[in-house]
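Example record

The entry below shows one chain as it appears in the dataset: sequence first, then structure tokens.
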Amino acid sequence: MASIPKTDVAQAIAALYRTEWGRIVAILIRLVGDFDVAEEAAQAAFTAAVNQWESDGIPDRPRAWIIRTARYKAIDRLRRRTKLTEKLEWYAASGLIPSTEEPTYDNTCRLRGKGEGERKNL
């Protein structure tokens, strides 16, 4: 396909962002159930649109393209998060990670100089 001028793509993305951002994020929140994941996925989809649309052209339904792309990015992120949690739980249960006890802190400090052995509470 022929390359689309960057200004046309930039204008299309800017217009889509201004008019549809709220709806896109709301749809993604409903789909994935997490505001942060939905918002980050929408941002990533807009970034992908800049690169993709310059080479492939602006799709017939740009909002649907953004939502579909963001949905896939959100699913990928949720899968990575789940996988990380599973690995951390496995490592913790396996005993491969040495357990350390919480350090205990003495909330007194030694004053040096006058009266070597005196302590003063902080």
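Notes for this example: Strands lie at 108-110, 119-121. Helices lie at 6-32, 35-56, 62-94.
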